[in-house]
What does this fold into?
Amino acid sequence: MTTTKSTTKRTTKTTSAARYLPEDRRLSSLKSAAEHCRGCTLFQDATQTVFGHGPPGAPIMLVGEQPGDQEDRAGLPFVGPAGRLLARALDDADIDPGMTYQTNAVKHFKFTRKGGKRRIHQKPSRTEVVACRPWLIAEIGAVGPQIILCLGATAAQALMGPSFRVSTERGHVVALPSEDDLEFDPEPSVVATVHPSAVLRDRSERRDEAYQLFVDDLRSARAALVSG
Ligand code: URA
It folds into this structure.
């Protein structure tokens, strides 16, 4: 009796975006290439890749966690409720949005379904954040920001490492860790703060204070710009 070997192809689960990055590292090429990223499994359920948005040369780069429901549909970061709060805070901190490049640590929306239709945000895993990190690093290289403002722990830990604590470091101007893939010329500084959705979710009497502290952190980032 002859046995035939199964020819079923196994799909290898890749967990890095690295091999999807193009040689041409300009923002427009990165954005087009990211549309086809299969570096982790999040692309399967999301509508589209939500790449960063803003001009190359923007002095401030804002990094969020991942696109939300509205961003997933629109294909742009920070267009939903958290984005609206962020826009108000930027205005209060005297930061022109045109001076910012806005992106996320993870470029696909991760969610679970509730009641059949509603899509509920799910925090990306460390593996997914690490898989997506080559895009973020390439964006930093292409934009060349002076300041990277990390919004929330996911963004901060994507760049500063998993032991970084926003609770103790928020508002401080810090350097990127010395790692080979984090060498940029010029070298950006990092400021971390809470995620705008944490301010939105705060239903306590301290919400105004939470908002003011958030604006203060944005002002610290603004003050750290070389041109002032
Ligand atoms: N939250 C994020 O972290 N990023 C977005 O783009 C929207 C909401």
